[in-house]
Amino acid sequence: MPVEFAAIAITSVGLIVCVALHAVAHRFMTLSFFGILALSFLGGAVAVGIGHLALPYFFALPLIDHVLFLAGDLALYCCGWYVFQNVMGGNESSIRFRILEEISLAGGRIPEAALRERYNDVLLMEVRLQKLKSGGQVLEREGRYMLASQKLALLSSIFWLLKRAILRTDSEFDRAP
Amino acid sequence: MGVLLGFVSFAVFFGLHVAIWRVRVPARPYGALALLWAGTFAIMLVALWLTAVLPSLPATIYGALLGGSLTLSYLFFYVGIKHDSPSLAILRELQMRGPAGIMAGDVEAFARSRPFVTARLEQLISDGFVRRDGQGVLYATGKVTALVRLNEAYRALTGQGQRSG
Fold it and tell me: Chain B 21-80, CB below 8 Å of chain A: which residues?
């Protein structure tokens, strides 16, 4: 078997370990959302690492090639984990998925007014603020909300900078007439 | 060779993407991004073939898988760049307002100035995932029904409740 296919197999095993840990942790452990993310990600990454420790016993390659394959496999693993989180696992807060789920739960058809009663812009913002408050990223004091997390402020600034750099706009709603 | 092919094809793709997008954002950006990477990868293979250093088939497969995975992940990331996140929008607003923050009573006005649910619903309709009839009833078109059902099944299997949105 070529070493490339062995490397792909190692990454696949890492992703299977990651998904299994994610499912088991959600089902049987009382970890926080981020705790489950960290556990599943690290578990799969360790499996990839162990696979690469075993690789030299089967393939005699220069050290630089082993390092390159380790870097490539870790990148592949991170991509797989990120896509999994977006599609299956952690996309808890996707607005599109929530809308599709509401339609699906209503039997595939729902009057728009009924959807908006269950899920609307104000409700969405209130849910997000409550999440940020319960996570300690936002403080509520004397009837005012204030930013408490500099890390999230930095993240928000990074996305804003990327939006400015690539799309040359501040917000998708700036383009609305 | 395969690892380098994957990383370099993604790096070249990303540079081209930023350069093109700053001039004009394509009408169908996700398809354009996928096509741009595929074109970049194909041109790199042709260039390598012309210089007589064509990688082996396993290396080409590994490079395609790595470059394609990086691009697919970037497509998901790009959604976050193209479309605002409600959480990041409120954080940015709080950051801009400084110590004064936002009055609890002003949250509703802020939400109405950024109609995320309305915008995403219209995108689902324009992308053909949802159909709205003349009476204002919304229908799932079935395009992503399998994915949504798979997602619901996984959430049920793992004991997760309904998503918060």
Answer: 21-22, 25, 56, 58-59, 61-62, 65-66, 69-70, 72-73, 76-77, 80
pLDDT digits (tens, 9 = 90+) for B8-62: 999 999 999 999 999 998 988 889 999 999 999 999 999 998 988 888 999 999 9
For chain A, which residues make up each domain, given as ranges?
3-87, 136-177
Q: Quick check: A131 contacting B, CB < 8 Å? A: yes
Q: How many Cβ atoms are within 10 Å of B76's Cβ, its own excluded? A: 16
Q: Which residues partner with B102 through β-bridges?
A: A145
Question: Do the interacting molecules here have an ipTM over 0.90?
Answer: no
Q: Which residues of B145-154 are buried (b: 16+ CB within 10 A; e: fewer)?
A: eeebeebbeb
Side chain identity, residue B82:
K
pTM: predicted TM-score of the whole model, two decimal places: 0.80
A131 chain-B contacts, CB cut-off 8 A: 87, 164
Domain boundaries, chain B: 2-82, 129-165
Give the one of A91, A98, A112 whose C-beta lies nearest to B132's C-beta.
Answer: A112
